[in-house]
Amino acid sequence: MRWTEKKPDFMPADIEAGFRSMGFLECLYVLNKFRSKPVIVLQRSVIDDVNEHLEKRNVEMGGLLLGRVFQDEDCPSDFFVTVEKGVQSSTFSSTSVSLEMSADVWDAAREQGVEGQYVVGWYHSHPNLGAFFSGTDRHTQRSFFNHRHSIGLVIDPIRNERKFFMGPESEELPVEHIVQL
To answer: Whole-model pTM above 0.70?
Structure first.
């Protein structure tokens, strides 16, 4: 094995830059919440697009989430994640209880992202099974989305349920730590 110095794929941005992109009330809400757990700032258009995608078929489907991470330099444990775009997996194999996405979704994410955006997580559906992380979902999160800021979103489009999980241990985030803009 050979070590090569390489620029990291991901760098958190300064938290002040994140606050400049929000309104006053959203900033106050995030400041109040993120001291106890991270906060996800979600564009309403993203959740609408993801829901529309997952409602198309009654099998598991999914994709990647693009966004940014904003971190307090003085206290690195304080951060929030913005979710700015969903990238649908167009090549996949699925049933009503399983999903295998093709690697081309990563290429699509690179093509569709803008400067400063990174893959901050993934999403998938559990049609009529409820919103929860299965053992397989937890393994996927730990293997591919293992940063503390990595998001896993599961949606049951039939029961109209959704839950967010974060980090390599797939810790469920309380609904009050999700801010929709």
So the answer is: yes
